[in-house]
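Lecture 7 notes: from sequence to structure.
We start with the chain below.
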Amino acid sequence: MLYLVRMDVNIPPEIPEDKAAAIKQEEKAYSQALQKQGRWPHLWRVVGEYANYSVFDVENNDELHDLLQGLPLFPYMKIDVTPLAQHPSAITASGN
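Predicted structure tokens for the same chain:
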């Protein structure tokens, strides 16, 4: 199943800079591992914001929930999830 996910990050200013930097490094490693696995095929920055739009390709809602909760920045995020379905007018790689 495909999901469009918007993530807005808001790290509180009272978090020490070195701790925030460490969390961001963990986040980068975690997200890149999921991308290499094919479960996070698209990651797009929102210009001018500390936010992104991502497409996840996972088996179900529970898997997506677990992946999102595993994000090191999860405690500092507002996340909106939109399940996606194939559009009947879309040209796909599968030829449908």
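Points to note: The chain is about 30% helix and 30% strand. The longest helix spans residues 17-37.
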